[in-house]
Amino acid sequence: MCCIFRSTLPDGRKGKGFSQRDRPGPHAADVNKGGTLYRTSCHQSNGEGVPGAFPALGGDPVVTDEDPIRLTEVILFGMEGETIEGVEYSVIMPPFAEQLSDEEVAAIVSHKRTSWGNDVSIVSVEEVEKVRNKGN
């Protein structure tokens, strides 16, 4: 399995993100846990990816979008055959909805959004739960 494992929206809506300090308490994503859950074999420990196979995560438009929903959908439901900044990626990103809890997905999404030079809001467990319940 690739990337993670346990050991602008399609309709044009824009969401509001929150910073870690805006979300103190038990529902805040644990960014450190996200770093532990994130596996480096696909996108690499430096987030630079593998050209033509796995996109770089640093500066990636999906990762750094103001609204974290698409990144959350990719982690939960997988993705394949996407073109990102003119490069086609044919390798399948498998879905992890069955392997990861909402808390774990929130931690991974938040880790990706705050690593490798990325500096955008983290996500809450509740936001992940909404995306999971809506489905792909």
Task: Report on the architecture of this protein.
The protein has one domain (28-134): Orthogonal Bundle (Cytochrome Bc1 Complex, Chain D, domain 2), CATH 1.10.760.10. With 136 residues, it is mainly α. Strands 1-2 form a two-stranded antiparallel sheet. The protein is globular. The protein has helices at 31-37, 61-64, 69-77, 102-113, 125-134; strands at 82-84, 87-89. It is built from five helices and two strands, in the order αααββαα. Helix 1 (31-37) packs across helix 4 (102-113), helix 3 (69-77) crosses helix 5 (125-134) and helix 4 (102-113) packs across helix 5.
| Low-pLDDT segments | 1-27
**Would you identify the CATH architecture?**
Orthogonal Bundle
Mean pLDDT: 77
Number of helices: 5
Order of H and E elements:
HHHEEHH
The CATH class assignment is Mainly Alpha
* CATH homologous superfamily grouping: Cytochrome c-like domain
- Could you please say which CATH topology applies here? Cytochrome Bc1 Complex, Chain D, domain 2
Number of strands: 2
Cα-atom radius of gyration: 14 Å
Strand arrangement, major sheet: 1-2
Fraction of residues in helices? 25-40%
Structural class: mainly alpha
Termini, distance in Å?
20 Å
- Strand percentage: under 5%
Please indicate the count of domains: 1
Q: Largest sheet at a glance?
A: 2 strands, antiparallel
